Amino acid sequence: MQKTQKNTQTIITTVKNSTISAYDRGLNYGDGFFTTAKVVNGQVEHWSHHKARLIECAARLGFPLVDIAELEAHIAKSIAEHTLCVLKIVITRGEGGRGYGLPQTCNVTVLLSVLEYPQNYSRLVNEGISLNISPIKLAAQPLLAGLKTLNRLEQVLIKKALQTQPCDDVLVLDYNNNVIEASAANIIAIKQNKLFTPSLNECGIKGVYLQSLCDKLAVDFKCVSIADLLEADAVFICNSLMGVVPINRLEQRSFDIVHSQLLLNKLLAKEAKC
């Protein structure tokens, strides 16, 4: 275990025998946040957006400023020799405080993990993904909406229910039956050559890949129903590890993934000319 302490920030590069305090607030209360990134040839893809996510989460949750320069130095050392892997960055508020109360002095703990890249992602990108509707719905909490916090029990229940469903992934709704996301990815769709995605003002995570896509294309964030997706010309899921993956089936509606990719590529090509 490599451990470096500076002011209020402790960075731990995890290995097999790494340890974290039993009193860490991330473990006890989910008091923290994280991001998961794809690494290609020793470089973190979409790093500027991952960095922005960490900074936003820290600000909205009342964390001290993360020392990004120190973090980047540790990341560079950890991934330098990897051609393809997954980098996970977990940040907690560390130890301290009585019960839920915040500690007077906050020693932020940063956990860096380098993980194997999932082998099935390439197949899913080529073959597309089937979606059914999850029986687990997301609760509204505007204060946390859009953030990737450590409070992920809803997603654990979603994945548990998915084990009994005949599909690759699920479409997750809120309690008003609005479409929010997939189990671990954002939803985007094309209708009449316009790209739209569900509003995330009440719940859900605004993914890094979705944000990078917004840099290239006009994306309409709006209230989306199941009917809107069933009537769309193409539907995709996207996250920072898989990129954009076409949906081949949503419930009983089938999509031609070759046509879906063509529609998306046309939008990207049109925007590139502007």
UniProtKB/TrEMBL annotation:
It comes from the Bacteria. Its cofactor is pyridoxal 5'-phosphate. It comes from Pseudoalteromonas translucida (strain TAC 125). Pathway: Cofactor biosynthesis; tetrahydrofolate biosynthesis; 4-aminobenzoate from chorismate: step 2/2. GO terms for molecular function: 4-amino-4-deoxychorismate lyase activity; pyridoxal phosphate binding; transaminase activity. It is an enzyme of class 4 (lyase). GO terms for biological process: 4-aminobenzoate biosynthetic process; folic acid biosynthetic process. Belongs to the class-IV pyridoxal-phosphate-dependent aminotransferase family. Signal peptide: none annotated. Keywords: Aminotransferase, Folate biosynthesis, Lyase, Pyridoxal phosphate, Transferase. InterPro entries: Aminodeoxychorismate_lyase_IV, Aminotrans_IV, Aminotransferase-like, BCAT-like_C, BCAT-like_N, Class-IV_PLP-Dep_Aminotrnsfr. GO terms for cellular component: cytosol. SUPFAM superfamilies: D-aminoacid aminotransferase-like PLP-dependent enzymes. Homodimer. This is Aminodeoxychorismate lyase. Its EC number is 4.1.3.38. The keyword Lyase applies. The gene is pabC. The keyword Oxidoreductase does not apply. It catalyses: 4-amino-4-deoxychorismate = 4-aminobenzoate + pyruvate + H(+). Involved in the biosynthesis of p-aminobenzoate (PABA), a precursor of tetrahydrofolate. Converts 4-amino-4-deoxychorismate into 4-aminobenzoate (PABA) and pyruvate. Gene3D superfamilies: 3.30.470.10, D-amino Acid Aminotransferase, subunit A, domain 2.
